[in-house]
Amino acid sequence: MKTGDELVDSMFDEIAEVTVKPDGTVEASLVEDAAQEMENAVADMARSWREFRDVNADGPIAIHDYAWWKALVYLSLAEDRMKTAFCGRDRSPRSIRQYHKFRLKMIAGRRYRTDA
């Protein structure tokens, strides 16, 4: 039997994936490998950021055509996926600040290390 701390720690090792079908039914399943989900979320974010940066390279007065909006939507979805993988359900200011630091370093191409 697990102690209280072990039980709480094991609760955060799982990621739930929820999908809503067009007919309104909801399916929930556990993503078995949280590390793999985080790796995929980071790769998706990096790719979406590069694509958005390339489309938005014309400067602040760029024409916002379909490609720009599409890149922005994919960037937003990738950012949300990565935030969910990083923070889970914890949306405290401290958690969001830590996520923001991680995101900025990842976008800049620097490796993320904890400040120990």
Task: Considering the chains and any ligands shown, give keywords for the structure.
58% helix; 116 residues; mainly alpha
Taking the sheet with the most strands, its summary is:
2 strands, antiparallel
Measure the end-to-end span.
33 Å
Task: Spell out the helices and strands N to C.
Answer: HEEHHH
Strand content: 5-15%
Q: Low-confidence runs (pLDDT<50, min 5 residues)? A: none
> Could you tell me the radius of gyration in angstroms?
17 Å
Number of strands: 2
Structural class, please? mainly alpha
Name the quaternary structure. single chain
Mean pLDDT: 77
Shape: globular
Tally of separate helices: 4
Give the % helix.
Answer: 55-70%
Strand order of the largest sheet: 1-2
Describe this structure in words.
This protein is mainly alpha-helical and 116 residues long. It has a domain at 33-107. The protein has four helices and two strands; from the N terminus they run H-E-E-H-H-H. It has helices at 4-11, 34-55, 66-87, 93-107, and strands at residues 15-20, 26-31. It has a two-stranded antiparallel sheet with strand order 1-2. A hairpin with a 5-residue loop joins strand 1 (15-20) and strand 2 (26-31). The two termini are 33 Å apart.
